[in-house]
Amino acid sequence: MQFCSMKASDKMECYRTHYSTEVTTAQHGCEITVAGWVQDIREMGSIAFLILRDRMGTLQVTMLKKKLDPELFKKLCGLNRESVIAVRGTCKPSDKARNGYEVIPEEVEILSEAGTPLPMGVVDKVGVDLDTRLDNRFIDLRKEEVQAIFKIRNRVIEAAHGYLRGNGFIEMHSPNIIGASSEGGTDLFAVQYFEKQAFLSQSPQLYKQTMMATGFDRVYEIAKYFRAEQHNTRRHLNESTAIDLEMAFVRSEEDVMGTLERLIRHIWDHVADNCTDELSLLGVSITVPSLPMRRVTYDEAVERLAKSGVDIKWGDDIGTEAEKLLGDLMQKEGCEFYFITKYPLEAKPFYAMPENGMADDRYARAFDLELNGVEITSGAQRIHDVKLLEERITAKGLKPSDFEGYLKAFRYGMPPHGGFGLGIERIVMNMLGIQNIRECTLFPRDRMRISP
RNA sequence: GCCCCGGUAGUGUAGCGGCCUAUCAUGCCAGCCUGUCGAGCUGGCGACCCGGAUUCAAAUUCCGGCCGGGGCGCCA
Which of A176, A223, A386, A443 is the most buried (most CB within 10 A)? Predict the structure, then answer.
């Protein structure tokens, strides 16, 4: 260890030689420098303990009053909790301390003093409302269980990038500021764009489809969805994130569903392999789904629900309560994940491919992927015939002329294609059993909140 | 858009017409303690969202405002 051979110097040469959990028996007896946030100080008269937290965990700095410079003892014990410090000292093995060692300080540098009282505690033994936590998210995120959610979220996204790039998809970025034409189905946020009115995009749908006319064949985007719906629920955000993809030369929606289920399996696999600490911290065990995932047609779902006493008018979407009930029914059969396929055409957006390619078909080649009764993905084979697309736009009460920029991409060679959008917050929420989706995004945007 | 519910110290709560000079915990401040790790003990600090109204009396009832939570619809 090069740090072992380092001479003690008057000045701290660096703020950190080791993270809390990186210290091994090799460092015992050597000088190390550690840095982080002061989580707690327990002063007991002649001995005091300072718990220092860094991104890997916590460690203990032990101060014996008799053996320590009085100035240094006072300086360390007088710190406010959550101040940021660097401590240079000797690493001493100890079976009484966490991680099997403690740091006997020789020098401390106060890098930032925390004010008091804290707007909320990091390790206090009292509850904190989600709202208070979100108002003070920078402190909330100091909690290891909160960090665990985002470490797992990071792995989810990492897995998606890895799987998709490994399977010929290229990452794209579509504009978030769009002109008037939109896919419909939701309210958009209006923004002033110089002298014009513009909107925040509800999804990259029309752009990723446009990309199918280019020859890239397979694209994906970690996309932002902006939706101006006045919903106020535990599973909706006004700004959300999705893994959105589109693939060309598909024979049917089955090709898309196959990609989706393999992607999901890879994500679950990757999280299971790389997040054991985080999962156990959150008390969650996850099961990598086996393939193929169960397919249930819309008609079957409606029939099953009818048998359980919930009547859905054919053609209507399956409501939240019914969706939950179906989730319970499927779970009894051992299916956490299941597709609902063959939706009524009328229940799906204009770009969904009718089952037999006719504008007045009864069903669409569209599917949702459900996880424990919550929709995490919506997808379909898309219409690639411009005539049919225009008919469907009209049938939805929209004007084809408003979609001219989009339709143009279909007139000069557009292959059959399909795709889906997979909500990242919804994945994390349902994977980890989190009750409120706001916990799954750093700075959530909901009906009331635009800050921080 | 529709329908419920709530706002009491920094944080989380109890109180729901007079017993409130407002409970408890946590936090903060001071003191004691040589092995703490949800440390312990002693003392102290700190709050009824705002504006009207009712009443002898309002944290408590009513009206309005502001802020927030949840459900539905819609969706990821």
Answer: A223
| Whether A70 contacts A95, CB under 8 Å | no
> In the structure encoding, which two tokens stand for residue A327, read together?
């989730």
- A6-37 per-position pLDDT tens digit: 444 456 779 999 999 999 899 989 999 999 99
Residues A345-383 have pLDDT tens digits of 998 999 999 999 999 999 999 999 999 888 999 999 999
CA angle, corner A341, sides to A339 and A344, nearest 5? 145
Tell me the pTM. 0.92
Please give the structure tokens belonging to residue A289.
Answer: 């789904």
ipTM above 0.90, yes or no: no
Provide the CA A230 to C1' B67 distance, Å, integer. 17
Tell how strand A170-171 and strand A218-226 pair up: parallel
Q: Note the CA–C1' distance, A185 to B27, in angstroms.
A: 48
For the ranges A161-165, A185-189, A279-283, the lowest mean pLDDT is seen at: A185-189
Strand B: positions under 7 A of a protein C-beta atom: 1-3, 10-13, 25-29, 32-40, 67-76
- If residue A339 lies in a helix (H) or strand (E), which one and from where to where? strand A337-341
Q: Which helix (H) or strand (E) holds A107?
A: strand A101-112
The gap between A46 CA and B43 C1' (Å) is 21
CA distance A234 to A130: 12
How far from A368 is each of A256, A365, A412, CA to CA, in Å? 11, 11, 30
